[in-house]
Design a protein that fits this description.
- The chain has 17 helices and 17 strands.
- It is α+β, with helices and mostly antiparallel strands and 577 residues long.
- The radius of gyration is 27 Å and the shape is globular.
- The relative contact order is 0.11.
């Protein structure tokens, strides 16, 4: 049940994210675009104008998209590998189909030629047949949503061959979740056509608009225009993705964190996005690389041979919108600090089959100005060895080969660069460093609010207590003075990797915040009493871990929130708007 809920919610969030904007015009218009008129034997002909599309067309469009997207995402790589076909052939076939159908919508007689092989079907099926399912199949092959942990879990399972019943269930649930909002747009297109059906000339205009939209999407995909546009849009669903997956149940259900082995078990000692250097064990090896780019003769790199240098490993994928906003920072660090002893290595871990094609990756790297070594991790071997689960993800390694900092997702660039400089000076005290880089941080959720606050031991970054914050049971007390944008505990608490829970009847959490909205991610059963700047309210917690409102949206403000948490309730994080 957890997998179904997580898959559906993850799909719904993706279905309303900026990533689906490029396909919306096509879905909206083709949901109601008309079929060409065929000779029915009663004197009617193509010259009499178009016929209404079947009422099922919007459903066929979305069904085709779901089927195609599911197969491409989950088993596309396996099938192409078995057939020894180029990894991006599915994408190009999808683009070609979009072009053919688009031309058919613009030129009815061309559509009739396309339909001729099917004229043995009953006439009533032919005359309203349209191209809904074919459109959906084409869109599914080129539809590339933003990477999130749910989709990452599916992609990793497919790429590594670990496809079981749970993975199929998760994929189906995710695809259905994506389909729901898209179906709304397709039905809206159908409704528009029905409202103006009396105006026959406008029906022809809708067909032309649908054809133009489809051809524009095809051309845009060839030149990666949708990705460039999406980079300019804030990902307003990023916080929803984090709320859904940043909890122990979701991590367990999705298998986030990869397989633990002797090389990577100490990575848990690093806190995501920490402001100070940590020590998280010897860096796992780079393994299973199909090809290296930007190295002499295409030779591979062994981390053991880089002792004495500071290494930054960047997991990325060239079509990942989140990565595209992060890469300018990595490129700037490489250019600024390469001569001072920094070695940047890009681990290209593909989300989709077409991203396994070396030529595609080379073109992507060239477009982003990447000149540092890039490893094609097509089987996600290094991804798995690092227990990674995000695009992008940065692992900072010191001159002795120890992982000192980990940052998942976008943002945290200033802190990462500060630590790069610290490690370079540690490796060579006499090094002369240039001024810090000046690249705009376009992370969508950047603002004048308290950063997302995790209470679990594996992700906390702003605990206000005087002592070290670690896993296990302990007794805490509020500090006399608490810094802004921090949290503190009071009473007996059991600190786990993802959440905290009281060891007695109740305990307290105090948060100093800057925000116009504050929410808490919690699970278990019980009632939390919240004191928000002197105003008291209650929060009833129950069921699946989810986000609860602590401070409703309003004007930006600063203040203090104190929560009395009963036994049986697990607190994961605070999020801010």
């Amino acid at each position: 049940m957890d997998l179904i809920i997580i898959g559906l919610l993850g799909g719904l969030i993706t279905g309303i994210s900026p990533c689906i904007l490029p396909v919306l015009p096509v879905i909206f218009l083709t949901g109601g675009a008309q079929s060409a008129r065929f000779d029915k034997g009663d004197g009617a002909s193509a010259d009499d104008g178009p016929l209404p599309a079947r009422r099922s067309r919007p459903y066929l469009v979305i069904l085709g998209l779901v089927v195609s997207f599911t197969l491409v995402t989950l088993v596309g790589s396996l099938i192409l590998g078995l057939l020894n076909l180029p990894q991006d052939i599915i994408r190009w076939v999808g683009i070609a189909v979009l072009v053919v159908i688009g031309v058919g919508l613009l030129i009815p007689r061309f559509e009739q030629i396309l339909e001729k092989p099917f004229q043995w079907l009953p006439r009533r099926e032919v005359q309203n047949r349209g191209s809904g399912f074919g459109v959906g199949l084409a869109l599914g092959a080129v539809f590339v949503p933003c990477a999130g942990p749910v989709l990452a879990a599916i992609i990793v399972a497919g790429a590594t061959g670990r496809i079981g019943a749970d993975t199929v269930l998760l994929t189906a649930s995710f695809a259905i979740g994506v389909a729901i909002p898209l179906l709304v747009f397709a039905l809206a297109g159908r409704g528009l056509v029905e409202r103006i059906r009396a105006f026959r000339k406008r029906e022809r205009g809708l067909r032309i608009a649908a054809g133009v939209a489809m051809l524009a999407l095809a051309v845009g995909l060839v030149f990666n225009v949708p990705q460039a546009l999406q980079r300019l849009l804030p990902d307003y669903t990023a916080q929803l993705q984090r709320d859904l997956t940043d909890n122990e149940q979701a991590a367990e259900a999705l298998g986030l964190g990869g397989l633990v082995n002797d090389e990577n078990r100490d990575l848990d000692k690093c806190t995501n996005g920490a402001d100070e250097l940590e020590s998280c064990g010897t860096a796992p090896s780079i393994k299973g690389i199909e090809k290296w780019l930007n190295t002499p003769g295409g030779e591979g790199i062994d981390l053991a041979e880089l002792r004495g240098e500071v290494v930054l490993i960047d997991f990325w994928a060239y079509s990942c919108i989140n990565c595209q906003r992060s890469i300018p920072h990595v490129v700037a660090w490489d250019e600024a600090y390469r001569d001072a002893g920094l070695q940047v290595i890009g681990i290209h871990s593909p989300e989709y089959a077409f991203e396994k094609d070396a030529a595609n990756v080379e073109a992507g790297a060239r477009d982003f100005g990447i000149t540092y070594p890039v490893a094609l991790d097509n089987n996600l071997s290094t991804w798995t060895n690092y227990r990674n689960r995000y695009w992008p993800a940065h692992y900072l390694i010191d001159a002795s080969g120890t992982v000192r900092h980990i940052s998942f997702g976008e943002g945290n660039y200033a802190a990462t660069e500060k630590m790069i400089r610290e490690l370079l000076e540690d490796a060579d005290p006499g090094v002369s460093l240039p001024a810090a880089t000046d690249v705009d941080d376009t992370t969508p959720d950047v603002g004048s609010t308290t950063p997302e606050t995790f209470l679990g031991s594996s992700k906390d970054r702003n605990f206000a207590g005087p002592d070290a914050y670690g896993q296990g049971e302990d007794t805490f007390a509020f500090p006399a003075d608490q810094a802004p944008d921090t949290f503190a505990l009071d009473g007996g608490w059991n600190v786990q990797t993802q959440f905290v829970t009281p060891t007695g009847d109740e305990a307290r959490v105090r948060l100093t915040y800057r925000a116009s909205e504050v929410r808490i991610v919690a699970a278990g059963e019980g009632t939390i009493t919240a004191d928000v700047d002197g105003e008291t309210s209650t929060i009833d917690v129950g069921g699946t871990p989810r986000s609860y409102a602590v401070l409703e949206p309003g004007d930006a403000r600063e203040g203090v929130i104190t929560l009395e948490v009963p036994a049986g309730v697990e607190v994961y994080s605070f999020t801010f708007g």
